[in-house]
Specification:
mainly alpha; 10 helices; 86% helix
Length: 294
């Protein structure tokens, strides 16, 4: 990577802990958000949270690998693995990222004709992980970069379309998160070209943007979860109301049945009394006839 910077050993030793501290803060924040969403996944079993966790873990490892911290602390005795780890961790992050994007934006429902593209991209990332060990690094990294840039543009186009055409909140969270990330990435690029001064903020602009992006996506997930809970509550209330209506109808039916039984009993008693009265009347007429004859 260029440009290279030459500095005295004592200056390097003073600056190295600062860079390590900033990277540690970044990875710590990512880890906290990953664990938070993993705990939500274990309680809700919502696959969207698992995809977020995969994306967060993969992206954190990718950043640590490209900056040399993974080789320094995680696998210092495996140089060959470190030579392919960038593509492997990046592909792992891509699986989580675009799997998450597909479900978070509702691509299968809102844009079903484009869903095959997301499935194909995710499948390509899965295939690229083992292929990285058999093809040259120059080929695998180019495949990874082309696929990632292409799918990023496609996903952002889909999110923009859904913002304009629907009232769903998820595309708005998504577009805002990536707008912040790309803004910080632009500042990072301008820093490398010397347009903006080199400061700890501009030197770590990508990490700052990624943290904000993950935070906004996490807020989007929380908003989605609240929406699902409200819809579930409304459905439960409607179900309870339906059960109450059915119970009232059954109660009324029981009351009507009781009244019908009472009415039937009264009619039976009245009928018996009528028959008895007719018998008495007939007997009276016979007696009257006999008395008349006498």
């Amino acid at each position: 990577q260029v440009p290279l910077t030459l500095m005295p050993e004592e200056v390097f030793n003073r600056q190295a802990p600062k860079r390590s501290l900033l990277m540690g803060m970044y990875l710590g924040i990512v880890l906290i958000m990953v664990l938070y969403n993993f705990f939500i996944y274990t309680s809700t079993r919502e696959r969207l949270f698992l995809l977020y966790v995969i994306y967060g873990v993969g992206w954190g490892l990718l950043q640590a690998t490209t900056r040399g911290y993974s080789y320094q602390y995680l696998w210092p005795d495996y140089p060959y693995w470190n030579s392919v780890a960038t593509v492997v961790t990046g592909s792992f992050a891509g699986i989580g990222m675009f799997g998450f994007s597909r479900e978070f934006l509702g691509i299968p429902k809102e844009l079903p004709k484009l869903d095959w593209g997301f499935k194909l991209a995710i499948g390509t990332y899965v295939a690229l992980i083992p292929l990285t060990f058999f093809i040259p690094y120059s080929v695998s990294i180019k495949c990874f970069m082309v696929l990632t840039l292409s799918m990023t543009m496609v996903t952002l186009t889909c999110a923009t379309y859904l913002v304009l055409k629907t009232s769903a909140r998820e595309p708005r969270f998504y577009l805002l998160a990536f707008s912040v990330y790309f803004t910080t990435a632009i500042f990072y690029a301008l820093n490398k070209f010397g347009v903006v001064p080199r400061t700890p903020l501009t030197e770590n602009a990508v990490q700052v943007g990624e943290v904000i992006q993950l935070a906004l996506l996490s807020l989007g997930l929380a908003d989605r979860l609240n929406t699902l809970q409200k819809e579930k509550q409304v459905t439960q209330e409607a179900l309870e109301q339906s059960r109450l209506d059915v119970w009232k109808q059954l109660h009324r039916s029981e009351e009507l049945e009781k009244k019908n039984n009472v009415l039937a009993a009264d009619m039976g008693a009245a009928s018996s009394q009528l028959i008895q009265a007719e018998k008495l009347s007939s007997l009276g007429q016979q007696v009257a006839g006999i008395l008349h004859e006498i």
